[in-house]
Amino acid sequence: MAGKLAITIGRQYGSGGREIGVRLGELLGFRVYDKELLFMAAQKNGINPDALRRVDEKATNSLLYTLAIGSSMYGARSIGVDVPINDQLFITQTEIIRSAAEEENCIFIGRCADYVLRNHPNRISVFVYADKEERISRIAGEYHVSRDEAAAMIAKTDKRRVNYYNFYTGKKWGKFDNYHLSIDSTLLGVEGSAQMIADIAKIYLSRAEQE
Question: Domain span at residue 51?
Fold first, then answer.
């Protein structure tokens, strides 16, 4: 197979998507990229990490994201000081994602990675969702909040992800035909879902090696 395999995971908040991605990395021996992409991007741009929480996965009203997705797929570019922090982070994250996907087999959680790597020769894009009550139970248990508070956290976080993804990609977050696989984690849980994706990845790799 020419090139490395990249697996991207989009997810509803509370669906267990991040945990599935981490477990998938353990099963396949792939490096997993998540929040660290944000800090890597901030470091490259000289941005104070303390500011990251305020801008993480928040879209701006600028059209400067076209610098990242509208030019040469792997070409280098400079980022001007007049570019908003949100866009600086997105542009640099895009460069880091593409570079990592060229160098090693890896898994990317969030960060519009399915779109960023849409032209990558070997990729599997996944979206993880789950039953609403299951998501509420997971968040309530993880953060020790009431079910009403958990439901509010889910609504707020998913809305932010919708706005971020739709803005930077021009596509609809969670729409099934934007992904190779859409998985309801309620059915098999974290372990079963990760194992299923791992099995699919192994089949993909086996077929690719025979071509």
Answer: 6-210
